[in-house]
Amino acid sequence: MGRILKKLNILLDKTQKRAMGGLVVLMVISAGLQTLGVGMILSVVQTVMDREAFHKPGLLHQAYLLLGGGSELRFSVLVMLGLVLVYVVKNLFLFFEQRATLAFVYSNQFRTSERMMRNYLRRSYEFYLNADTAVIQRNITANVNNMYALILALLQLVSDCIVFAFLVAFLLVQDAGMTILLATVMILLLALIKCVLKPVLQKVAGQHQDCYSGLLKWISQTVQGVKEIKIACKEQYFVDEYLKYGNGYVGAARKNDLYSQTPKLLIETVCVACMIGYVIYMMTNGVSSAAMVTTLTAFAAAAIALLPCVNRINNQMNKIAFCEPFLMAVSDDLQQEISGENVDMSYATDTDEKLPVRERIDLRGIVYAYPGTEKKIFDHADLTIPVGRSVGIVGTSGAGKSTVVDILLGLLRAQQGRITADGVDVMEHYRAWLKNVGYIPQMIFMLDDTIRRNVCFGVPRERIDEDRLWEALREAQLDEFIKSLPEGLETSIGERGIRLSGGQRQRIGIARALYHDPEVLILDEATSALDNDTEAAIMDSINRLQGKKTLIIIAHRLQTIEKCDLVYRVQDGRALVERGGELL
After folding, report:
1. What's 549's DSSP letter?
2. Where do the domains of the chain lie, and which CATH numbers do they carry?
3. Which pLDDT belongs to residue 424?
4. Whether pTM exceeds 0.85
């Protein structure tokens, strides 16, 4: 428990901690009201069974004179109505306390999920080269949900422990012996259950995490590869793989519920046995029936609240044990944020400022090796790109053509070397540099949205420049196609652009890259997946931009770069001029 509280102290901010403190105050008041309700039940029983007590000196006699006015019936009715009123007030208060607790948990649950989303977006591109998408999805959703299930269980545990303490204090006044016996047995029983079940539930939680990630992975792979799956007649294989993780997930969920619910049966059995044993003890020691009835009534009234309370304490302890690994996973994911590293998101603010590029872009002394490898993709490589020219970059697979682009875009940080635009270090003006670069990859990422939203990628609808949008579509030679569609720019393209042809997807990618009117346009093997005719049509659109834009074209096919002014060949960690050296 200490480790959990330490993690929560780090993860939660001051406002959240104050809110939790306020909830604890509400829980103390709630516990007092619940204890008062139990005490009122005892008062009602005494009123019905021993009306002679009304006339004996004491608080009850004074209340009888004040409220009853000498009428036993009137006073008895008022006491019973008082019991109803106490329960109405108590349950209304419990409702508002529960509402406040759930509001705290679920509003902050989404805030933490957003923190996780930001945390992953702050990570370097290199992290995603080996990342498991299903694990990331699980971490942002299921792990955070279970972390707040733990917080909710912790709050409810505190509430139930306070209620337990108040009820035990009340019962001590009625019969100290039985109370001490029951309280000791319950506490020892809860401690034993925790020691036995905590490691089991944490193991089950690990299985739950792994299997849930597997389910997400196979759902994603099945949806993305449905065409190939159907052609290869492998539907059953993918169902079987999904079932493997599904069976593990169901098994973990079943064990969690079983291990959480079973102790309730043990607790009830032991408590009833203790109470019966104590009654037998009183009978054998000659305790009067009247005294036994009063004592048992008090304990019966308390048991109505106490036994469910103990069962809830057990359930919350089991829930905390099950959810602890999820809390630790969230803490690990947010470790950089907690330690104050890599927390600045100001760089991600959109800007209209562009880094001017008028003469040349230089890569000087670039050294780069992928994480976990010793082989240098580039070893003090130099490359110059004249502004307003088209530059082709060729080379064998794995030579580093796309790596050049990723370094130029700042996605991969070179271990040594600089990238400058007219002598200005682009990394010192990174967002302004990216604002002046348009990027067209081989596989265009498509939103499951309209053509308008895909071209104006990430631009809020109210900020879309319609004139600039249509200009980009004309430059991509896509405007006539859009006009021929019944819904025009509002046409939905489907998930991954499935309703469009390959050429149309590429043209949308070109229009997207041109929407912000960048000086530099990068094509990273943008036509390599297209047929020859479509590639020729796409390259015709690109070649129309020569002289207007600085074009950097990565290609396998030589015909793709045949009209380039300058061509580099990437090999052996260097970028060698193959054609057009006179421009440098």
Report:
1. B
2. 2-338 (1.20.1560.10), 360-583 (3.40.50.300)
3. 92
4. no
